[in-house]
Known about the structure:
By secondary structure, this protein is mostly helical. It has three helices and no strands. It is elongated, with a radius of gyration of 22 Å. The N and C termini lie far apart (71 Å).
Amino acid sequence: MAQRLGLPSSSLARWLRQSRIDQGSTSPRDQGLLTSEERSELNRLRKENRELRREKDFFRLAAAHFAKEQ
Length: 70
């Protein structure tokens, strides 16, 4: 099927595996892997975490700057 679609067989296998994980029908070796929804949420939370760290650093530097002026 992968050849008919012009895809590497590894890509098709990965998609099928992820589909099984998303449906909850995993094999013992796939248990503990993230569903697509969980992976998406993890990526969103990592992005949010990076943004919050940048904001924290900015405010820390701003506070240090204003403390110097006083």
